[in-house]
Amino acid sequence: MDYGWISLLPIIIAITLAFITKDVFTALLSGVISSGLILSYYGESIFIGLNSIADVFLNGWAVRSILFCLMIGSFVHIIEASGGIKGLLIFLAEEKKIVKSKRGAELIAYIIGLLIFIEATSSTVISGISAKPFFDKYGIPREKLAYITDSTSASVAWLFPINAAGAFLMTTIGSQISAGTITGDPFVFVLKSMPFQLYSIFAIILVGITIITGKDLKVMSSFIDDDLTTIETPLKKNDHIKNPRARNMILPTIILITSIFGILYITGKGSISSGNGAVAIFNGIIITLILTGIYYIFQGIVKPKTYIEWCIEGMANFLQITIVLVLAFTLSNLMEKLSLGSYIAQMSTNMNPMLLPAVIFLMGSIVSFATGTSGGTAAILIPIAIPMAAKLGVDIHLTIGAVVSSAVFGDHCSPISDSTILASMISEVPVMNHVKTQIPYALISGGLSMAGFLIMGVLLI
After folding, report:
1. What tens digit of pLDDT does each residue of 441-451 get?
2. Is 407 inside a domain boundary?
3. Which residue in 433, 458, 354, 412 sits closest to 155, CA to CA?
């Protein structure tokens, strides 16, 4: 059913309330309720909005993601309670003096974010956890950590084809090949679209520039004084650990990385890029918690009962953000029922071919910002953008680049995005603080991308 412009109303309500109240929970719940009321007016059950919250748990991928977030809370807590974070900080900053400055601390997060390109969630988690103690030590606002991890993880994950995001993109493109809209190999299309993923490229470069120059936008710099007065650094925590060891953080992190990659390899039947990302991160974190517990117990730093208590305490710390994630999934599902993506995409028909890449980028940015999902945006737009490009004679690789760029851009800005929520969660900052500080940087990269797509639209038609 075509709901028309009214499909925009719940998202407008949610985003407006998010910025006014700075309470993402209230904003998301309002969006869910208003979506349910609209759907019930058109014949659905009056309780469809609230029932959709429970329906999230019928989706295996969503349930794994939710449980993963809770268990990441456990992971963060155990490596801190064991003295692992404190030990790593002492080892790198005081013994080896590898990290000697604010720039070094930021480069740690940046480099890890670039290297772990297989899976965006793992990149955010590992780079955030590894760099956070150094950000605290040198008084760098955690909002800057959230910005670096968010802007590198998703950008790199979509930019490289040999990963789960690349496999997802190849699948959506493959459906267009099967339909006869285009001809060729999906992998080649993804590979050739890489230079046209302008937003990811500009976002990665901009992060590097801010680190190297040491210059932050005013909205980011304004958090420095506040953070310095409120942060309790890892050096002040866990004094009960007489001999904090860096390996208590390093080994669990290695187990997490190798478990995720190993499961991707197994589920992909010998190909990491074809693996099941949701299964990998879910089972990977379970394996990590089990093996880490055994390792800590054999060290004698914790008893089995206490280790379980650590895990539960960690989950409790992340419960609020997990509830927000459930509401984000719910609202995204309701937006699909309201056909929001199709409505926005239809607004871009009947245009000058030279403008198509820029219009796709603009429309996709609106969709991804409104729905908070990069994968969902690509899934919505690829079946619309590729046939349009083929019909108008627009370069297909450029069109794919515009779709992916818009998906990542909106996902970076949206307060209801799972990547925004995860980056905030790992950095331990309010979601709206991260949104407020990330948007100006995203707009710079987005503006450059829009200009680039306008220029390329003229040159490649």
Report:
1. 999 999 999 99
2. no
3. 412
